[in-house]
Write a structure and sequence with these properties.
The complex is a heterodimer of chains A (about 120) and B (about 110). Chain A is mostly beta strands. Chain A is built from no helices and 11 strands. The radius of gyration of chain A is 14 Å and the shape is globular. In chain A, about 35% of the residues are buried. By secondary structure, chain B is mainly β. In chain B, about 0% of the residues lie in helices and about 45% in strands. In chain B, strands 1-9-8-3-4 form a 5-stranded mixed sheet, with no helix packed on it. The chains are: A mainly beta (about 120), B mainly beta (about 110). Chains A and B meet through β4, β5, β9 and β10 of A and β4 and β8 of B.
Chain lengths: ~120, ~110
């Protein structure tokens, strides 16, 4: 399967712990996005990368959140000192990029985080 | 970000056509109209997008009003697998993030 993969699929953690999620995009895609989705709501944009450069961060991304994409391949999203409000589905997507085109995004299955 | 308005839910019977409406009265000239859907327990899935002309692909058709203030996603023959939340999203060429609303939940009955 050559789609977007995310690991782990589920994570249960205690409040105050740090967690890290991984996303492997479609191999030829140079853009990678992170979104967060809570129950009953549409996904909310968190941040995106073009190759290894982080080009935009949402105000939702507090200083407890950090994302990296070393070497422009896979990406990690780390949440430090987790809070119960961080419980959500974390979605990763990837796309091609170039010029002024608009490209569809391909989403992974998500990582469901539960903070107890 | 330009805003879209969609009905909260719609119902259809299997094998019947479904027309999902979307209003976007503040659309700008460079906004593309995108549709994504999200099946239960899955990430969103791209369906179709267009700028001015109607578009067809293997999944659906997109009909865009002449003034571009509204559009309709058409599923020609609904199947049970089409039961999902459908999101209508405007995306400008200068921005690459998707701004999701709450979408339309489509229920398909056998």
């Amino acid at each position: 399967d050559t789609g977007v993969s995310q690991d782990p699929r589920h994570k249960i953690t205690k409040r105050g712990q740090n967690v890290t999620f991984r996303c492997d995009p479609i191999s030829e895609h140079n853009r990678l996005y992170w979104y967060r989705q809570t129950l009953g709501q549409g996904p909310e944009f968190l941040t995106y990368f073009q190759n290894e450069a982080q080009l935009e961060k949402s105000r939702l991304l507090s200083d407890r959140f950090s994302a990296e994409r070393p070497k422009g391949s896979f990406s990690t999203l780390e949440i430090q000192r987790t809070e119960q409000g961080d419980s959500a589905m974390y979605l990763c997507a990837s796309s091609l990029a170039g010029g002024t085109g608009v490209y569809e995004q391909y989403f992974g299955p998500g990582t469901r985080l539960t903070v107890t | 970000d330009a805003k879209t308005t969609q009905p909260n839910s719609m119902e259809s019977n299997e094998e019947e056509p479904v027309h999902l409406p979307c209003n976007h009265s503040t659309i700008s000239g460079t906004d593309y109209i995108h549709w994504y859907r999200q099946l239960p327990s899955q990430g969103p899935e791209y369906v179709i997008h267009g700028l001015t002309s109607n578009v067809n692909n293997r999944m659906a058709s997109l009909a865009i009003a002449e003034d571009r203030k509204s559009s309709t996603l058409i599923l020609h023959r609904a199947t049970l697998r089409d039961a999902a939340v459908y999101y209508c999203i405007l995306m400008n060429t200068g921005f690459q993030k998707l701004v999701f609303g709450t979408g339309t939940r489509l229920l398909v009955s056998p």
